[in-house]
Amino acid sequence: MFKRLKQVLEVLKEAKLTLKLSKCYFAYSEVAYLGYMLSADGVRPGEQKVQAIQQYPRPRNKHEVRRFLGLCGFFRRFIPRYSDIARPISELLKDKVPYMWTTLQEVAFQTMRVKLVSRPVLQLYNPTAHTEVHCDASSDGLSGMLLQRNGDGDNQLHLVHAVSKKTTPEERNYHSSKLELMAVVWSLNKLRHYLIGIKFLIITDCQAIVHLNTQKTVNPQVARWATLLSEYNYEIKHRPGVKMAHIDALSRAPVSSPGDTEQLDERCGVFITMSEEEQVIAMQQTDTRLRAIMETLSQEQSERTAVNTENMKDYQLRHGMLYRKVIVDGEVRLLGQYLIRCAKVL
């Protein structure tokens, strides 16, 4: 242990980096790092990554049994002997079987929760993998799941991180579309460290959210939330509710306290205090096409291909902001390219 510690300290010394002693941990059997627990046995997810499933409440009636099985069923392909494990619980859904939770059901329930937060259902985050965020809302709570395909011929979605929270009394009175949008914004905020800098899909069962960027927003709070979404590179797709049982189960049985949606308005305040130019640059960076143009213009002339040079002749990059050259009354002028694309966001 001391040999490795010495090696680490020597590397830090060579890099002229210093450590704050009060934030150092020595001789621990495991440590938390970026949401994971690292130990001699390897890497496992931290509790917060799977809290929404680990603390999923025990079903109290047949309706809640059906909901829990909807969550489990989404990942059944990864769980060996899924039908055998779930049988004591699924038997309760039969018409002539009275609801009675016994030791058999409890063992199956606890086993299933463990399976859902273990490999191969759960996998480590991969910034290059296909990424989806599934979101849902109900009067009871908000929920989100970060899911990825791990490649290697496996086209199935694996769980990376799950979140859920209870709604406040005020939020329970929101219109369903507004509540669904809040679920998207809240989930992305909780999963932000995974999502910044990558392109991903947002999956929702709310059709209205799909057209958010093409509709004029008059509600000030919704407009602020739309501003927060502008920092991400995403595409929203609708999926019918019958195919969203896994995420619906979490929104109707949330585990976290309701208070942290207040952070959304706080983040809006931080974003709004940015200058107009800073906001424009931030939004340009979220657009795949504009970002590619900006990256090309940042290259040395000698590094560009002839095709790139020709394609870039109508653009200029000034102080980090992209402009497009236009002819007005016979004169060449610079037009903020963002005016065309970011109008949908603002």
In short:
This protein is α+β, with helices and mostly antiparallel strands and 346 residues long. It has three domains: 55-122, 2-Layer Sandwich (Alpha-Beta Plaits); 131-272, Ribonuclease H-like superfamily/Ribonuclease H (Nucleotidyltransferase, domain 5); 276-344, no CATH class. It is built from 15 helices and eleven strands.
Class inferred from helices and paired strands: alpha+beta
Uncertain regions spanning at least 5 consecutive residues: 269-273, 337-346
Helix and strand pattern: HEEEHHHHEEEHHEHHEHHHHHEEEH
**Quaternary state, please?**
single chain
* CATH fold description of the largest domain: Nucleotidyltransferase, domain 5
Shape: globular
Total strands = 11
Q: Write down the Rg.
A: 24 Å
Proportion of residues in β-strands: 15-25%
Q: What would you give as the CATH superfamily of the largest domain?
A: Ribonuclease H-like superfamily/Ribonuclease H
The total tally of domains equals: 3
CATH architectural group of the largest domain = 2-Layer Sandwich
Keywords: Endonuclease, Hydrolase, Nuclease, Nucleotidyltransferase, RNA-directed DNA polymerase, Transferase
Pfam families: RT_RNaseH
Protein name: RNA-directed DNA polymerase
GO molecular function: endonuclease activity; hydrolase activity; RNA-directed DNA polymerase activity
